[in-house]
Design brief:
The chain is mainly β. The protein has one domain (22-189): Pnp Oxidase, Chain A, CATH 2.30.110.10. 11% of the residues lie in helices and 35% in strands. It has helices at residues 16-19, 71-79, 92-97, 108-111, and strands at residues 23-24, 26-31, 37-42, 45-49, 54-59, 81-86, 116-118, 125-127, 132-143, 150-161, 166-167, 170-171, 179-181, 187-189. Strands 3-2-6-9-10-5-4 form a seven-stranded antiparallel beta sheet, covered by helices on one side. Strands 1-13-14 form a three-stranded antiparallel beta sheet, with no helix packed on it. The longest helix has 9 residues, at 71-79. The model has no long low-confidence stretch (mean pLDDT 98). It binds flavin mononucleotide. The site of flavin mononucleotide has 18 residues, from strand 3, strand 5 and helix 2.
Length: 201
């Protein structure tokens, strides 16, 4: 089949994000100017550069109690910092609970029963016990076509790696099985890894 987005797909559910898979999940923690903490998962998320290390995530749609966006982007606008927490399979239910659309100012850490730790290079909480976390300073927010679509870019200023995830000098994802987002309500966890040498190696 072929369709143009403006014509509609005619399927029971939108196939778009099922075609761009698997997507990593950036579990974004922020602290508002009023000191209130927020946490939410974003699967329009990726690393975008090595030197300096940079990441991005994209927020779509708005909450009625925020200024044309959702809590995460709104708080990042206020403070210029955010933290990306890595989601392991074991934390899938807490991650999902933190996606609830709570009123602005309500803390998803509490809602999802999660402990906090303080970031070291930015004034921001992070999820305690995750396999890894990236402390980030905002570089730019790009308004994308459509309503309330924003891509948020950040430079990584500090990296946390859980000690048990470092095996023989590598960040060994098989120890924690990162959760990734598929289409619909589907997810995958990484259980098998293989390597390929590059032509120029
Ligand atoms: C696994 C997962 C991935 C998600 N990815 C995105 C995303 O990339 N962009 C987005 O705008 N919302 C995404 N959502 C929905 C947000 O998490 C949800 O709207 C949340 O309430 C936003 O929280 P906030 O207002 O505290 O930022 C995702 C939800 C889940 C469960």
């Amino acid at each position: 089949m072929f369709y143009r987005p403006e014509d509609g797909h005619g399927l029971p559910h939108n196939p778009f994000n099922a075609m761009v898979t698997p997507r990593p999940i950036g579990w974004i923690s922020t602290r508002g100017a009023d000191g209130r903490d927020n946490l939410a998962p974003y699967s329009f998320f990726n690393a975008v550069a090595y030197v300096p290390p940079q990441v991005m995530f994209s927020s779509t749609s708005a909450k009625p109690d925020r200024d044309g966006t959702k809590d995460s982007v709104s708080q990042i606008r206020e403070t210029g910092v955010f933290c990306v927490n890595i989601v392991e399979y074991a934390m899938r239910d807490a991650m999902n609970a933190s996606s609830a659309s709570l009123p602005a100012g309500e803390d998803e850490f509490l809602h999802a029963g999660l402990e906090k730790e303080q970031c070291r290079t930015i004034d921001c909480p992070r999820v305690a016990g995750t396999p890894g976390a990236l402390e980030c300073k905002l570089t730019q927010i790009v308004q994308l076509p459509g309503e309330a679509n924003f891509a948020v870019f950040g430079e990584v200023t500090g990296l946390h790696l859980r000690d048990d995830c470092i095996v023989d000098g590598i960040f060994d994802i098989t120890t924690f099985q990162p959760l990734s987002r598929l289409g619909y309500r589907d997810y995958a966890r990484i259980t098998e890894v293989f390597s390929l040498k590059r032509p120029d190696d």
